[in-house]
Design goal:
- The chain has 385 residues and is α/β, with parallel strands linked by helices.
- The chain is built from nine helices and 15 strands.
- α2 packs across α7, α3 runs parallel beside α4 and α5 packs across α6.
- The longest helix has 20 residues.
- The protein is elongated, with a radius of gyration of 23 Å.
Length: 385
């Protein structure tokens, strides 16, 4: 039996609860939510499963050593004292990144450099050979986290951020991050039991994430590589078994996922990405201006979108957000509409009262995810709830 060990899944602000729930459903133990991260326990197979199956995780770290640190020399000495031979060959390659929350240390690049020096010097002193740095495809990616005087050294099991799912070949100006898109859809409570629409779909991220949620498809199946595949204890048979068990849990989806965009280039990119994700059976992308559309049929519709904001496009924000409100009110009865915006002033111009507001960040911008409920049978839009 593989032994359990502690891991930390990093996430975006506001997604800690979602990630905890995902970890519970996957079968993690000792789950404890922090800020932008969730700690948990599991074995090696579970580490593979977490990387393949979590929608709202950005990274899965495996802490291997924690100690207090009083100076740069102290950091160097304690890292030098560790047994690195169990993780890396003397001729291997490594990369180090650091995050610092401390008045003692202020420069994360310098701390990363100091860590790398200690590891390389240890190998050179004990074997006569030294590992090289490879920032793109290292055999071992190491994360140093210093919080005040507490230092945690972790192995990064993911490598590239887990938002890089592998299906997105084409993007528009400012594509939404895949982890953010999945989290927004999950926060909106969509469960695949109604039609789904993104009326400003850009390169199709929201549509693809919605389809993967509806069909319970593991989000990172298409990734080219995880960092743990270069580890000394990499177990390809175990990985394939985990992959197979996750694929066995996919389910049918009997509704429609529809995307609109008024830019032909965005429609073409979205279609390419949907095809890359092999989800053409579930997603339809059309060249439409949302403000000139109306809902087809009486079925309930679930809408989640990311309207363009001032930094991206030269548009009249007041008019644009007023048009969103008018279109929803007049043309989309029986719709739960959710969208994220970083333009908090513009929300006042929607002309509808949101039934929910959730505080998030879109990249570094403070944002709100808002919900508007458009009831059936009223052109005036009874949007109170």
């Amino acid at each position: 039996m593989e032994e359990n060990f502690k891991m930390v899944a990093k996430t975006l602000f506001g997604f800690e609860e979602l990630l905890s729930k995902e970890l519970t459903q996957l079968g993690a133990q000792d789950i404890k939510a922090g800020v932008r991260n969730v700690a948990f326990s599991g074995d090696k197979g579970f580490m593979y499963k977490a990387n393949l199956g979590l929608r709202t995780a950005v990274k899965i770290l495996k802490p291997i050593h924690t100690f207090t640190v009083s100076s740069e020399q102290d950091l160097y000495d304690k890292i030098y004292a560790m047994d690195w031979s169990q993780y890396l060959k003397p001729t291997g390659t490594l990369a180090v990144d650091a995050t610092i929350h401390s008045d003692l240390f202020t420069h994360s690049l310098y701390i990363a450099q100091k860590t790398k020096d200690a590891i390389v010097d240890k190998f050179r002193d004990t074997t006569g050979k030294r590992p090289n740095v490879d920032l793109k495809f290292p055999d071992l990616k190491i994360n140093v986290h210093i919080d005040r005087r507490q230092c945690t050294i972790s192995l990064d099991s993911s490598g590239d951020s887990l938002h890089k799912r592998g299906y997105k070949m084409a993007t528009n100006i400012a594509p939404i991050n895949e982890v953010l898109a999945a989290g927004l859809i999950m926060l909106s409570g969509w469960d695949g039991q109604t039609d789904f629409m993104d009326p400003m779909c850009g390169s199709g991220t929201m549509l693809i994430e919605a389809a993967m949620i509806a069909c319970n498809i593991p989000p990172n199946l298409m990734r080219k590589e995880f960092a743990f595949e270069r580890w000394q204890d990499w177990d390809v048979e175990l990985f394939e078994k985990i992959e197979e068990s996750l694929l066995g849990k996919t389910r049918d989806f009997h509704h429609k996922i529809i995307g609109y965009d008024k830019a032909p280039s965005a429609v073409s990119k979205a279609k390419d990405n949907v095809k890359n994700a092999q989800l053409e059976d579930f997603i339809e992308v059309k060249h439409e201006d949302f403000f000139k559309t109306q809902k087809g049929g009486d079925e309930k519709l679930h809408m989640v979108f990311n309207p363009p904001y001032g930094e991206r496009l030269n548009i009249d924000m007041q008019e644009f957000y007023a048009s969103i409100g008018d279109t929803l009110k007049q043309n989309y009865p029986g719709t739960d509409a959710w969208f994220i915006t970083s333009n908090l002033d513009a929300l006042k111009h929607v002309g509808l009262r949101p039934s929910r507001k959730i505080h998030l960040f879109n990249a570094k911008l403070e944002a709100r995810l808002v919900k508007y409920v458009m009831y059936e049978g009223s052109k005036k839009g009874k949007y109170m709830k």
